[in-house]
Amino acid sequence: MSTDEPHIDCLTTGRNTPGITVSATSIGRPAVDVLAQGKEFIIRGVTSRGIFVSVDEKAIIFLSRERFKGPLIVNLPWDPIVLDQIAIKAEGKVCPHGFRFLYPDLFIDLSSAETWSAVNLWSPIPPPGSTANRSQISGFLNLLQSRASAPNEMIAAARQAINPATLPQPDDGDETSKYIHQVYRAVQANDLTALQSAAHYLAGRGRGLTPSGDDFLLGLVYGLFMLPYRFQVIREPASAMIVATVKKRSTLISANLVECAAAGEVDERLGTAFQAMLHPELPPDAAIRGILGWGSSSGMDATAGMSVIIAGEKN
User: Fold this and answer.
1) pLDDT tens for each residue of the chain, 315 residues long
2) Which residue in 12, 183, 225, 277 is deepest, having the highest Cβ count within 10 Å?
3) By C-alpha distance, which of 122, 25, 123 is closest to 74?
């Protein structure tokens, strides 16, 4: 019986040598951990910015056309002649040093890629330290919104929550704003029950691979990680609860990213924005450009979550 039907093999000698090899430039540290455990992958999405790879149906890795680094991102020198041939549902194997495709006849080599980690760049903030006040945080949000192409619901709600005395409060029918106000009060009061009900409402709220509510919660858990001394009572149980809630109620990629954020691993654009809000003396322009370029609204939604945490100690 013939055994010559197509198959995918990690061997790179003889007839199994890939026709083309593309070497990645960098990879997020959580992605390294995922790939160390994975055996098979399938392409779940192809966009103008890159390719979504599902590894063993447990995690999503993003093969990126862009230079920005992140926890689950593999940055590639994009070769459109080869990489644009990768189609949805294409399958392959995770090999010791990369991704092996059957079609196109391609190996994405990770052996020389730089391992990137947000935690290596930005450590949790120790006490005491001076940070931005509510007015300064609101100023950053105002500037961000002024440069966006459309109003952002999460930014508007965060501004209202941070400055209840100066901005009109949400209407009775505005459920999203109500729950963001609830988040703001809950972190101030260490009220895990109130935070849980808000997280239940927000998780999965919105459209897309990472709904707006998930992105807000991502920013929230990253803020809890970065400000451990201000939220000692609530930090660990709140982060664990939010991660579990997103896993149950939303998409796999949202769950992956929120879990990474709870461990301090985020897209570099988000980490840069956090530092810009925390330290208003820093020039904000680069941070704002990065946030506006992250997804259709994901950057702004996550920034709203971070802002609520940074302002949450202010009474």
Assistant:
1) 333 445 566 755 555 678 899 999 999 999 999 999 878 999 999 999 999 999 999 999 999 999 999 999 999 998 888 899 999 999 999 998 999 998 899 999 999 999 999 999 999 987 766 678 899 999 999 999 999 999 999 999 999 999 876 656 666 668 999 999 999 999 999 999 999 999 999 999 998 789 999 999 999 999 999 999 889 999 999 999 999 999 999 999 999 999 999 999 999 999 999 999 999 988 999 999 999 999 889 999 999 999 999 998 644
2) 183
3) 25
Residue 180, token pair as written in the block:
């963001």
Query: What is d(CA 51, CA 80) in angstroms, rounded to the nearest whole number?
Result: 12
Instruction: Note whether 271 and 133 are same-domain residues.
Output: yes
Name the token pair of 214: 């998930």
Query: Does residue 169 sit in the same domain as residue 305?
Result: yes
Residue 8 domain-assigned? no
DSSP state of 23: E
Query: 132 and 221 share a domain?
Result: yes
Same structural domain, 85 and 103: yes
Range of the domain at 297: 121-311
Distance CA 22, CA 40 (A): 19
Q: How many CA atoms lie within 13 A of 102 on its CB side?
A: 14
| Token pair belonging to 110 | 């990770």
One domain, residues 112 and 156? no
Domains in the chain, number: 2
pTM above 0.90, yes or no: yes
Where does 149-234 have alpha helices with state H? Answer: 153-162, 175-189, 192-202, 212-226
The span from the CA of 312 to the CA of 306, in Å, is 10
- Token readout for 7 is 């198959």
